[in-house]
Design goal:
By secondary structure, the protein is α+β, with helices and mostly antiparallel strands. It has one domain (23-270). It has helices spanning 43-66, 71-75, 80-89, 185-192, 260-265; strands at residues 5-6, 9-10, 106-107, 113-114, 125-132, 138-142, 152-156, 159-166, 171-179, 197-203, 220-226, 229-239, 249-255, 269-270.
C-alpha cells in the first residue's frame, strides 16, 4: 500500500490506497480535495464525441475483417479506459448504475458509498474498482499486505484503481491511479484513446492546489478530442515519494469540462 499525494496534501487514514488488495479505502479521501468546478459541460458536444469514438472503433474492426485480420484486433482499439470515458461523455454518463457493465472494470463496491466527512457535496459519494491500462509490462507491485508484512508481487504496471466520484444522483468525475510515477502523460493517454487527439491545455503549474507550496505533482491538463469534439478533460499528476510500502504513483482525473479554477489556483501556464 502507499499514501497518495493529491492537490499538494497528504491523504491519511481513509486515503490509504491499495490497488493490489482492492481496499475499500481506495482514494476515497481524495475526493474531499477535488474541486467542484467545471463539472457540467455542454452535453451535445460530449455525446457527439462519444458517438465518434464508437464509430471509429467499429470501423477499425470492420477494416480488420476486410483485411483478413482477426476481428479482435480492431476491437482492441476500444480500451477499458476508452470505454469508461465514452460512457462518461454519453447521455447516460451521469447515472451511477450505467457503469455496472463496463467491460474490463471489476467493481469492488456494488453501489456508490457516501463519505459524510467530505465537505464538497459534489464529491461526497464514490464507487471504487480495479482496471488495467494498456501499454505497460510486468513489474514488481505491492502485494497489499500491511506494515512489516508488506511485500511485492509480479504484475502488470498498468493495474490501476478506478473511482467514480459524485453526489447522490450523478457521477461528476473519474479518477484512475496506477503504481509508479511517470510524467509521460500524453504517451499513456494516447495508448488508451487511439481514435482521439490529446490536446495540452495547461502545463508548468507553479503551486500545489490550495497551497503556496511549490508544485511537486508535475500537474498538467489535457483535452481529449475526437474529430474536434471534446470527449473529456483530464488532469494528470505524480506522487514521486516511494518507500517500503509503495513505489509512488500516477493519477489521472477526468472531468466533463475544463477545470479552469484549478488551473488558475495552481498558476499553471495555459496553452
Amino acid at each position: 500500500m502507499f499514501r497518495k499525494l493529491h492537490n499538494g496534501k497528504r491523504a491519511d487514514g481513509d486515503a490509504w490506497y491499495s490497488a493490489a488488495a482492492g481496499d475499500r479505502a481506495t482514494t476515497r479521501f481524495l475526493f474531499g480535495m477535488l474541486a467542484a468546478t467545471c463539472l457540467l459541460a455542454v452535453p451535445g458536444c460530449r455525446q457527439q464525441a462519444a458517438e465518434k469514438v464508437v464509430v471509429a472503433d467499429t470501423e477499425a474492426a470492420a477494416g480488420a475483417n476486410r483485411d483478413g485480420r482477426n476481428t479482435t484486433q480492431g476491437e482492441a482499439r476500444m480500451t477499458v479506459l476508452n470505454g469508461l470515458l465514452v460512457r462518461f461523455a454519453s447521455a447516460d454518463g451521469a447515472s451511477w448504475s450505467s457503469y455496472d457493465g463496463i467491460a474490463g472494470v471489476e467493481w469492488t463496491e456494488a453501489q456508490p458509498t457516501e463519505t459524510p466527512e467530505v465537505s464538497d457535496p459534489g464529491s461526497r459519494f464514490s464507487r471504487s474498482g480495479r482496471m488495467t491500462l494498456v501499454g505497460f509490462g510486468e513489474t514488481d507491485l505491492p502485494d497489499g499486505r500491511p506494515g512489516a508484512d508488506a511485500g511485492t508481487r509480479r504484475g502488470n504496471e498498468g493495474e490501476s484503481g478506478v473511482t467514480l466520484s459524485g453526489d447522490a444522483d450523478r457521477v461528476n468525475a473519474i479518477v484512475v491511479m496506477k503504481f509508479y510515477p511517470g510524467d509521460d502523460y500524453e504517451s499513456v493517454l494516447r495508448k488508451q484513446f487511439t481514435a482521439a487527439s490529446i490536446v495540452p491545455e495547461a502545463t508548468q503549474c507553479a503551486l500545489d492546489f490550495g497551497t503556496k507550496a511549490e508544485n511537486t505533482g508535475k500537474n498538467r491538463f489535457y483535452r481529449i478530442e475526437v474529430d474536434g469534439a471534446p470527449l473529456a478533460h483530464v488532469e494528470a499528476s505524480v506522487d514521486e515519494e516511494s518507500g517500503p510500502s509503495g513505489p509512488g504513483s500516477t493519477t489521472f482525473v477526468f472531468y466533463r469540462s475544463k477545470p479552469g479554477e484549478r488551473i488558475a489556483a495552481m498558476q499553471c501556464q495555459e496553452v
